[in-house]
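Re: the 342-residue chain
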Amino acid sequence: MLACLPAWGQRVQFPSPLSSEPPVYAGPAATPDRAGAALQGSIQPDSGWDPYAAATPEPPALYPEGGYVQPYLDGTQPPRQRLLHQVGVEGTYLARFNTRGFGVTDAGVYATFAMPFLYNPAPIYLTPGFTYHAWDGPDPAAFVGAPDLPPNAYDAYLDASWKPVVTTWFSGDLGVRVGVYSDFDRVNSDSIRIIGRGLGVITFNDRWQAAAGIWYLDRLRVKLLPAGGVIWTPNPDVRYEILFPNPKLAQRITNLGNAEIWGYVAGEYGGGSWTIERTSGLADRIDYNDIRAMLGVEYRGFERVTGYFEVGYIFSREILYISGTPDIKPTDTYMLRGGISF
């Protein structure tokens, strides 16, 4: 289901809305040592479940390494869940090109911790993270209203996500993120933002799932965004996430030893919102929004090592100001993005 983890920054991808792990407990038939994949998204390693194993209703209890583990009903032991679930880094580059362009270079780091919660097979994931944004342009002389931006902005956040298993056919995908989004020259109440999501997932069988819910983005123009769609997995080598607002169509290309190489096409609603200080000294809040179409390759290794690289075309770009400064529409550009987690 929805991103259980890398940092999804502010783009609408907690990284991928629904991960490759099923929302139903796979039971002792699962392969304990198999790790899933990630990306925003987003791209997510799983908790050791086999996406194609037959579903059974018996949930295991999850504890940190060395703790007591509740056995399955048949007496076998479930795989242990380690406390430090994932550590990752991610980088993004958007080219500027010209005076009407807006260049962006992002670098982020995060760590995800898995915490057992009651007897539900899904743990709660806590993810502290930090992202640095370097902005290049746009040129104030190229637009009306002198749209000056600071050279840097930052995200510092704590994300919590949980995918509760209610029945063998119904589960949820819940997440909330609290963070400070600012250039750190102007930090006020608008700098502290809460972003969240809530979706319900119905599993019809091992090939078809449906999801529906909502994202809360807390941006100037877009506060709420409907989310949902269907996921079709016709065979273990193909996964089609036909989901709004971030679809992803993936297919396994080949294997390298025990690792899998997947190719995919994807889309997402990108951007974010920050408080800034203008060169005039005025405190302001800005949104940057765009739409991204991407072509990527994903490495899904064992021992929780995953990675990805993608190229994309960025369009429908806009910069909005809460102060009333005229909206800016930078020129289209391309994107390079990659990340690794372990």
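The CA atoms of residues 187 and 275 lie 7 Å apart.
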